[in-house]
Amino acid sequence: MLDVRAHRRRRLSAYQIVQITLGVVFGGYLLWRLFDLFFAHRVYGPETWVQFALSGVVLGSVYAIIAIGYTLVYGILFMINFAHGDIMMIGCFGGYFVFEALKAIPAGTASNPDLKLLDAQPVLAVVLAFAVGISIAALSGFYLEKIAYRPLRGAPRLVPLISAIGASIFLENAAQLLFGAQRRDYANPAAIERGAGWTIPVGNASVVLTYTGVLTLVLSVLLMVALYLLVKQTRLGRAMRAVAENKPVAELMGIDVDGVISRTFIISGALAGAAGVMWGIHLGLVYYFVGFIPGIKAFTAAVLGGIGNIPGAMLGGLFLGVVEALGPAILGLNFQLKDVIAFGILVLVLIFRPTGILGEVLSEDKV
Amino acid sequence: MKTRIRNGANAGIVFGIVTIFLILIGFTGTAAELISKLIHAGSLARSLGMTEGMFSLLLFMAVLGILAGWYGGRQLRDLPDTWSSVLVRSTLAGAVHGLLVGIVVYVIGTLNANGVKMTTYLPQLLPAAIKQLLFGMEPFPAVVFYLILLTVMGTAGGALGRVLGRGAWRHRFAEGWRRRWESLQHLPSVQWVAGHRWSRFAFFGIIILLIVLLPLVLGQYWNYTLGTIGIYVLLGLGLNIVVGLAGLLDLGYVAFFAIGAYTVALLTAPQPHQLNWNFWATVPFAIILAAIAGILLGIPVLRMRGDYLAIVTLGFGQIIAILLKSDIMTPFTGGPKGVSGVGGPTLFGRGFTDVHFVYLIALSVLLVIFVTRRLQNSRIGRAWEAMREDENVARANGINVLTTKLMAFSTGAAFAGLGGLLFAARNQFTGPEDHNLMVSINVLAVLIVGGMGSIPGVIAGAFALKGLPEVLRELEDYRVLAFGALLVVMMILRPNGLWPTSRRKLDIKAEDNAPPDPEAASSTKGAQ
Amino acid sequence: MTTAIETRQLLKRFGGLLAIDRVDLVIPEHSIFSVIGPNGAGKTTFYNCITGFYTPDGGDILFFDESVVGLTPDRITRLGIARTYQNIRLFSSMSTLENILVGQHSRLHANLADAVFRTPRARAEEKHAVSEARSLLTFVGLAGLGDQVARNLPYGAQRRLEIARALASKPKLLLLDEPTAGMNPHETRDMMDFIRKLRDELEITILLIEHDMRVVMGISERIAVLDYGAKIAEGSPAEIQGNPRVVEAYLGRGDASTSRRRRKE
User: Fold this and answer.
1) Interface test with C, best of B378, B399, B406, B502 (most C CBs within 10 A)
2) Which CATH number fits domain A44-366: 2.60.120, 1.10.760, 1.25.40, 1.10.3470?
3) Do B528 and C155 touch (CB under 8 A)?
4) Which of A29, B89, B364, C173 is deepest in the core (most CB within 10 A)?
């Protein structure tokens, strides 16, 4: 009775050998670099690390917001919404045009006759930009689902995926044809000019905590809390979880499955739109391809946290943002290769822990 | 009445948005240009007091209006298909269509008249284009003009649809052609030809004759195009193995294309390595390197779910693109400016001309078709398809999915490597821009349009997607946009492509085709 | 009599749930052995452990005295275990004959080079495989339907095709998962005869999961009953019918299906 375990042999598969080799090589290099950076050479001072980490957290919170959109949709439809990054691009353009319009409206005062509405009413401008960005992105999300995904319900998995890729290409090129290929500057209100911020002393030097960064971070946290409450506390949230668990049963329980899916896309689109406006305000560039890289990175974040898992997406986004900011310095890579790090992480996660940090939240038979 | 109004207005809104979109992306102008070329109605236009461009635009708008009316007045399940219902709906659709377009035209016209530089935000709206859009009128009369034009055309479209577009007529038409086609197939002479073994040889003979003769009569430009199409057939056939047969959605396919191209380029070019190899000697290297790269890429992504695979391979493709452009690779690959002076093939001491390249590419295509066909109908090909259908069941049937996937990856990669080496050798150049994401997307589109898993489908797809845009050069700007839309539309309407695979017949035709178990045949299919 | 398959203290956990709870089973060669139990009792998990889709958390599985724990599903199939599925899983867009040819995969040898150059060896192998597949089709009563796309076959024929595909690997042990699900009484009787014919003519061992008690009692030589992952009874059909614990598992706790999942280890 006791020796039954002796019969079980551990067989290492070829895949496990690949895993172990990769793990040893990568882990060894990482340890050596960390030792080199913090004990041997100390290339960077503490203020540099803090600055890197700060910008990483801010960027990470944007990734988190986009990642939640992927996770919501994946949790419910089991498909990657490839066009999610492009929805973010649409939101980004929405905010851009609000700022441009307000910039054109004169609001001169006696002391400053050249003042424009954009700079006179920064709060209004920001609120309006988010309102417009979120609305048109949510609308695009709604129609995207209705046009490109709904007719494909129940088709083999490759089919909606290819449709999503097509939708992504379509949206990108539509934006290019409409607005041109050039990169445009996001005209922030003067009060939240990019780069400006509070100066905080760290050690002998100081770091800048930018206004846009704080705005982005605060808004993301608010959005995350709101979303968490929505999913956990409301009727819609309960319906969403039911649909994710089992569509036919949810339908039998009187849930309007199509309606829930539509609303999921609206929520995920709204989040992408908010992220797009934040991206524009914080990083300052908008063009037709602006959603592609953040889209892929946010997907990475979603997988990192465990797809279908909302807290996981938040954590994954923050983690990815920080790693990406610190990564080139830690790994000793050229900063040109920053984007390679995110893809590298994605591949490593999928090799070592495909279910992500917090684990996937998916109904079993779907996986 | 209420449903009529809603249906009509909805159709009008849909077409309104589409038309406005077409105006803003400048497509209306391009379409007008194309129409002008086709009909040469300059004198007619001038007699109406318009330029030729305006007249063509008018025609294009009229077509859109007719389509809107047709769509607005289409047959609906919950509405009677009477003349009054159709005309009310189509007229309303036309009016809404006209109103929406009119409003946008009015806004554009007024802003332009007030000196706002439209091209800052919407670069397609050049002053000339705006003038054409207004038909040379002031903004307000133009709105009225659009409203009237599109309403009338809407009504006409509804009526036209009622007369021509209804099920019975269309059905009869399709049925008639099908019957004619079938009776043709049953003609004794046709059957004799089709049944004769020589007819297959004759068919291939004609194709080979065409391949040999066609490049000789075509000019340099068309030979170049033909070569590009051929290379896309190669790429499509390679991706067909990975996506179409094995069901692994690989969006980083361009990586193997790049490896093939760069291998040849770096080995033959004087810069940056001065290796100056002979082209022929590099061919096996390029193909084998690409195949090995396929395996190396395959190993880490083997265990992934299908949709993860898509995004990881996309990431790999991007990594390759970033690396090729980055400074660290410049000493090895020439960096952003690429590798020029790539050595082409020689035969009997003579360099290859465009015609020769077409022959070389065609030969490669034939070789790859041959290999694909053999693989498809073998133990390996069946394993690929089984894996695509249901991976777990394939494993339970003794298929080692790890090695089977790697075989698919490396075979597909080898084909892409071949395509890449031909591409670099023909262009005598290769650079990062030749290997961006769009190549992967283009090849995927070729595959999707033609039909996954089908060889004639891939060929047809390559001609349609790489050949047609060369014929309609004006539409170049809209090609990628159309690809995107095409992927969505194909998935919705014809997920199996225009030329779906037909299964190979292996069984002997049974004398009586009755099911062996009549009870089983009639049993409940809904039980599962 | 030799033992076809034996499990010793087999254990499988999903989180806190014990799906298979220390199950000991000995299934003699050439027998028809049924595993029954209420829904969610762990029968399909048991199959997945044997076929290598799940790695057990404890215990051992011996197939003709060889441990198969830790082997990949394709290796296990090559050793001689084949299965069918509760909800038919055919390669639905492939033809009937191709489905069977895929089933033969583990017994064929053609590699990439053989396929491309169509060596005489590969050609002979392929020819033999096709003729064998045709005779299998005839054996399961689907003669002449080889070129049909599998998805277009009627339901009963799909069941038979799935069995034919499993047989194509020449298994020593065939696992059937509810082969008569969704069939009418007449079809069910045919299927019972067919299962007996399989065992008698092909001399294989058959392990059966079934809900229809008439089938189970009609054709099994021995029956094991699983409940909550544990074996609660084993014996001949007559013994099982009279066993009070079995009756209780099936009838006594009619409302238990909801509370069952919550039971922790």
Assistant:
1) B378
2) 1.10.3470
3) yes
4) B89
